[in-house]
Amino acid sequence: MNRLYDIISAGELLIDFTPCKEAHTYTANPGGAPANVAVSAARNGLKVGFLGMVGNDDFGRRLQATLTENNITSLCNKLTDEAVTTMAFVTLYENGERSFTFTRKPGADLLIRPDDYNRDDAANCTIFNTGSFSLTNEPARSTYIEAVKNASKAGAIISFDINYRDAVWHSEAACLDIIKEIIPYVDLLKISDEELFFVGGEDNIETFMNEYGITAVIETLGSKGSKYYYKGKSAVIESMKVKAVDATGAGDAFWGGFLSSLVMQKVTSVADINETIIETALKYGNTSGGLCVTRMGGIPGIPTKADINNALLQ
Hints:
By secondary structure, the chain is an alpha/beta fold. It has one domain (5-12, 32-83, 108-313): Ribokinase (UDP-N-acetylmuramoyl-L-alanine:D-glutamate ligase, 3-Layer(aba) Sandwich). It has helices at residues 33-43, 58-69, 119-123, 140-153, 172-179, 205-212, 250-264, 275-292, 305-313, and strands at 5-10, 14-19, 26-31, 48-51, 72-74, 87-92, 98-103, 125-131, 157-161, 188-192, 216-220, 226-230, 233-237.
């Protein structure tokens, strides 16, 4: 079945202020986990749509231009005057890891409503991807939950990245309560080794998958690679060895690479997925994420299909 988009990614599109070498100075880069995934998929040559709200300001217009420059179709038909574009200030550590401070009381990413996009277009995709960040408040919460349900009903594969940020949630439990509204529709769940609380711990993953009908859980392990859980089996796929300079966007580059590989392997429904396809996609995603950490900035650091294939040949 031909679909309008290979991948639609929904959620936050924001400005990452990344530290410069000079003390107390920052560079403004486009970012946001679902936006990073969209860019990754587009740089792999796929047909990509993005669903998210930005402010009617210079940053918002710059972010919309970033989508256009990366051949991504913006599915939101307006820029909001209710709040400024959401911003994240990144703190980097010596090992390349980072933490975030957000300007978001509220931010524009929270202000998308169902009337701001065409529901049929937003469901017309092979894979629909989103995460928890823009589920913290209304109206975005209900808007994205509805979009997930519509995409699932239309036959899309639903991808969900927990991407927990304690800076925007009151607690892990509060986040879990909201995530439980989406989990019954999720086919592919991405979780970090620090987010295992959400599935009841690693030993409970298989039970969690069976309870909610999840096809595969993908656990990211940082520099160690990634681990898949599928039909009672699990295995670690090791990552490439690199010197990390900035982990911003690396998990998204990994996930965008993984999802792109599924599409490039002709996956159109969960029925097409098997263990070999997952392992191939994880190797591809690991390489995408590995290349990303060697570069500064979120979206600027996301590799292309040629970059990834060249690295896989080495």
